[in-house]
Design a protein that fits this description.
CATH architecture of the largest domain in chain B: Roll
Largest sheet of chain B: 5 strands, mixed
CATH class of the largest domain in chain B: Alpha Beta
Distance between the termini of chain B: 50 Å
Radius of gyration of chain B: 19 Å
CATH superfamily of the largest domain in chain B: Beta-grasp domain
Strand content of chain A: 15-25%
Strand order of the largest sheet of chain B: 2-1-5-3-4
CATH class of the largest domain in chain A: Alpha Beta
Radius of gyration of chain A: 26 Å
Helix content of chain B: 25-40%
Shape of chain B: globular
Strand content of chain B: 5-15%
Number of helices of chain B: 6
Number of domains of chain B: 2
Largest sheet of chain A: 7 strands, mixed
CATH superfamily of the largest domain in chain A: Aldehyde oxidase/xanthine dehydrogenase, molybdopterin binding domain
Structural class of chain A: alpha+beta
Distance between the termini of chain A: 75 Å
Oligomer: heterodimer
Number of domains of chain A: 3
């Protein structure tokens, strides 16, 4: 029996290639006869195209517009409302209109295309936009009764901004015309999303479209749906030119044109008893979908389901709306709606505590979900509900209550003594408690019906899944699950490329589902394979019986039920639970906020690979702190005005405080070795923890990012300011 | 504001245009401002002598990737903002997207491909694997080249000193804690 690999931090499958420079990303590949493509985009937020003029000699160029599309002019996803190339109407800045291609990149970049438009009046305010892509209502109990039972009602409005995924490798693909169809190589999370979109766009059957993921330099959701667009563009050019086509965005284009996290405006009205018990939760959430539907409906869904935070309450009303604005479409970003709504829930929770005069820990202890409790959708939580455990561990570890009181006292004394106003910085400590459902929402996993295959090899087995390695450790973690289940060493399991010509559709690499859902299907493949092998070694089996490939499909746990019409039931197979504590310092000259310490306790079922799991938690926390404090997308007339890294600021190593991570394991019975999802949850908590820390330091913020301008103003609004006027 | 900001590429375009106009005035041929001028270079890349004809507008990054097929050095922003393209020029770390290839006649360039010696990884590469100091890997070559240069730079002993010296290399995966740990371990070894 080989030593087990699950629970140990084995070497990454692709590690050596990444440190030697041997790993090949899309821009590192070329093909004979390759030409380069460029996207011509709209420069207005709303209107009609009047005419297009070419200010250059077009001979030698391949030109493509909507008339070259053999199939349907859409990027097939959910609503099919987004054209691959605009025909007449333009709904946002940077909307693709034309494609140019040429062997010489200089000639391509110099080509001058002039488009005249008839402009229309754009819509920028998501809350007043008349067009809704999706509305969702969740009702539990009777909200009126809940408010009647309340002693105090606390209201608040919270706002979150766009966030750019900012994977360091920009979006890119290469399309190669072959076998009467097309093969697309590229940086992506979901090869089968691209596969489906290409079939619809090009009117080709399954076997004429092949999609191969190349090594991918980060995704974070930003390469969930957008690669279907860019792959479509490259494929159209490749088919017309009958040559391989490379289409790789530069940084500015990637930031201007591709999806971002949905901005949100969330209103809370909460009834609470004097002792801190919640009696009514009433939430209205609006997310800004941008110009086309993309994934807004499902982002909204995850957002509203998580909108209460991990708290129990008998009377809940949630109304969610994803609306259209004339800005580039927003889409998937790690967390997928939950960071927005849990930001609001957790900042609001501190305000409730403040209104009642109790501390932030106590209000959460009273109301945190326990095993057996029901969520907003009526899901009864199992024994793996760990809200209280993560809260208590974090509070103990950070000495939270003592520090929180000490900083609050300092704040009070500062207010009384104007002379001390500018002495050093102001410090604060804040807490957030949050949860995150793993896998697709509701009946999503049943609809996906994901498949995974395992092929027997001489040494062990080869994994065949469409799940992509984008840095999070898919290949490594899947190989560990298979190795231990099959009873072979980790090194004897290898992983096939995510190539739709070779692997089954395991669903997209999103929604914290790659370990919990796809890993579980693989585990069942390995169980079957082990049974088939009996006492034979892989080599003996192959000699005696020939090749063996086992394919299994997702099976819904029998204890799960969901009704999409009433939005009632088990929204997710299970949830991870986490608690963050952020300690911050405000520079009273520049009003910059510096996180000085960060602690997080995550309950994730089982850490298949502890170092990879820590990496997800640390990385997600760093992105969450960027979301909270630094990252501001400035939209000016529907166009991102700061589409570069000098003024869209993401955390450097200096902006990232030491991150103290504790992993708790409370196994989920349907996860492989008890594992739940982990990828997204870490980004839900840092923003409310940081903003609550600012509250502790004397700054009343309801909006992120907490830029110096906002921080400065938020202190002035405090009534006690009059004391030192 | 009276200053009109121009970006680096535009700057290169303008300066290159000036060069080409001067040259081509001599030959009496009128050319478009974007016409290319080629220069011959002799330099050492990863220890090997290399002769290159480069367009004067081409960055060192593009010359390494496109003319020498050294794809380990990555283009993350092409504006000197992310650090993914860091290489060593005469032992010092340089952002290869912010320097023109034509400026490196006779220089000694090391890229991530040149760190390995006879199949043995550089201590920084070893440490990056040991500490899982990367996730997606796209910024990794730049991180490693910065870290390898740091070993020979004045740098205090603390983690904060390392952070300060590594703050020009962005990692969106947020592998920073492991990057710092890897560098500290490589410093101990070197």
């Amino acid at each position: 029996m080989p030593s087990r690999s699950v629970g140990r931090s084995v070497v990454r499958k692709e590690g050596r290639g990444k440190v030697t420079g041997a790993a090949r990303y899309i821009d590192d590949l070329t093909f004979p006869g390759l030409i380069h493509a460029r996207t011509i985009r709209s420069t207005i937020p709303a209107g009609e195209i009047v005419d297009v003029a070419f200010g250059f000699d077009t001979s030698g160029f391949t030109l493509v517009d909507y008339r070259d599309i053999p199939g349907r002019n859409i990027v097939a996803l959910i609503d099919d409302d987004q054209p691959c190339l605009a025909e007449r109407l333009v709904r946002h800045v940077a909307e693709p209109i034309l494609l140019l291609a040429h062997a010489d990149r200089e000639a391509l970049l110099a080509a001058d295309v002039r488009i005249r438009y008839r402009e229309a009046v754009p819509t920028y305010d998501a809350t007043t936009s008349p067009i809704a892509f999706k509305t969702i209502a969740i009702d539990k109990g009777r909200i009126d009764q809940g408010f009647r039972e309340a002693d105090v009602i606390v209201e608040g409005e919270y706002r979150t901004g766009h966030q750019e995924q900012l994977y360091i490798e920009p979006n890119g693909v290469i399309a190669v015309p072959e076998h009467g169809g097309v093969t697309v190589y590229g940086s992506m999370q979901c090869p089968y999303y691209v596969h489906r979109a290409l079939k619809v766009l090009l009117d080709l059957p399954d076997d004429k479209v092949r999609v191969v993921q190349t090594e991918t330099g980060g995704g974070f959701g930003g390469k969930e749906e957008y690669p279907s667009m860019i792959a479509g563009h490259a494929a159209l050019v490749a088919i017309k030119a009958q040559r391989p086509v490379k289409l790789v965005y530069d940084r500015v284009e990637d930031m201007l044109a591709t999806t971002k996290r949905h901005p949100a405006v969330i209103r809370h009205r909460t009834g609470v008893k004097r002792d801190g018990t919640l009696t009514a939760i009433d939430i209205d959430a609006v997310i800004d979908g941008g110009a086309y539907a993309t994934l807004s409906a499902v982002v909204l869904s995850r957002g509203v389901i998580h909108a209460t935070g991990p708290y129990r309450c008998d009377h809940i009303r949630i109304r969610g709306r994803a609306t259209m604005t004339n800005t580039p479409p927003n889409g998937a970003f790690r967390g997928f709606g939950a960071p927005q709504t849990q930001f609001a829930a957790e900042v609001h929770m501190d305000r409730i505590a403040e209104a009642l005069g109790i501390d932030p820990v106590r209000i959460r202890e009273i109301n945190a979900l326990r095993p057996g409790d029901r969520t907003a959708t009526g899901q009864r939580l199992g024994r793996d509900c760990s809200a209280l455990a993560v809260l208590r561990e974090t509070v103990k570890r950070t000495d939270f209550k003592r520090k929180w009181r000490a900083y609050a006292r300092l704040k009070a004394s500062r207010c009384l003594k104007a002379s001390r106003y500018k002495e050093g910085g102001s410090r604060g400590i804040g807490l957030s408690l949050f949860f995150h459902g793993a896998g697709f929402t509701g009946g999503g996993e049943v609809k996906l019906a994901s498949k995974a295959s395992l092929a027997l090899t001489d040494r062990g087995a080869r994994i065949l899944v469409a799940s992509t390695e984008i840095g999070q450790g898919t290949r490594t973690m899947h190989a560990q699950i298979v190795a231990d289940t099959l009873g072979v060493p980790y090194d004897c399991v290898d992983v096939n490329a995510a190539d739709t010509g070779q692997v089954p559709d395991s669903g997209p690499t999103v929604a914290s589902r790659t370990c919990m859902v796809v890993g579980r299907i693989l585990q069942r493949c390995a169980e079957d394979m082990r049974e088939r092998l009996g006492r034979l070694t892989p080599r003996e089996y192959l000699k005696r019986h020939g090749p063996l490939v086992i394919t299994r499909e997702y099976e819904r746990p029998t204890d799960m039920a969901w009704d999409d019409n009433s939005y009632r039931g088990d929204a997710y197979g299970t949830y991870g639970w986490a608690c963050d504590v952020a300690e911050i310092e405000v520079d009273r000259e520049t009003w910059e906020v510096k996180p000085i310490a960060f602690t997080t306790v995550h309950e994730i079922g089982k850490a298949i690979h502890p170092v990879l799991a820590l990496g997800q938690i640390e990385g997600g926390s760093a992105q969450g702190l960027g979301y909270a404090l630094l990252e501001e997308v400035v939209m000016r007339d529907g166009r991102m005005a700061n589409a570069q890294l000098t003024n869209y600021i993401i955390p450097t190593t200096l902006d990232t405080p030491p991150i103290d991570v504790v992993i708790l394991e409370n196994p989920y019975k349907h996860g492989p070795f008890g594992a739940k999802g982990v990828g997204e949850m870490p980004i839900d908590g840092p923003a409310p923890a940081a903003i609550n820390a600012l509250r502790n330091a004397g700054f009343d913020l309801r909006e992120i990012p907490a830029t110096p301008e906002r921080v400065m103003v938020s202190e002035k609004q405090e009534p006690r300011h009059a004391l030192h006027a | 504001m009276s200053i009109t900001p121009i970006d680096r590429l535009e700057f290169i375009r303008i300066t290159a245009a000036a060069t080409s106009v001067r040259k081509d005035t001599k030959s009496g041929v009128s050319v478009a401002p974007s016409a290319s001028v080629t220069r011959a270079l002799a330099l050492r890349v990863n220890g090997e002598a290399v002769r290159l004809d480069v367009d004067t507008r081409v960055t060192l990054l593009d010359a390494l990737r496109e003319q020498l097929q050294l794809f380990g050095t990555k283009k993350g922003c092409d504006h000197g903002q992310c650090g993914a393209c860091t290489v060593h020029v005469n032992g010092r770390r340089v952002l290869s997207c912010l320097t023109l290839a034509v400026m490196h006649d006779d220089d000694d360039i090391i890229t991530v491909e040149g760190l390995e010696r006879n199949g043995v990884l550089h201590p920084v590469q070893e440490a990056f694997i040991e500490h899982d100091a990367f996730q997606c890997g796209y910024c990794t070559a730049g991180q490693i080249m910065s870290a390898a240069a740091l070993l020979n730079e004045p740098c205090g002993p603390s983690d904060d000193d390392v952070r300060e010296q590594m703050s020009g290399n962005l990692c969106r995966c947020g592998a920073y804690p492991n990057i710092v740990a890897a560098i500290q371990s490589a410093r101990g070894r070197a």
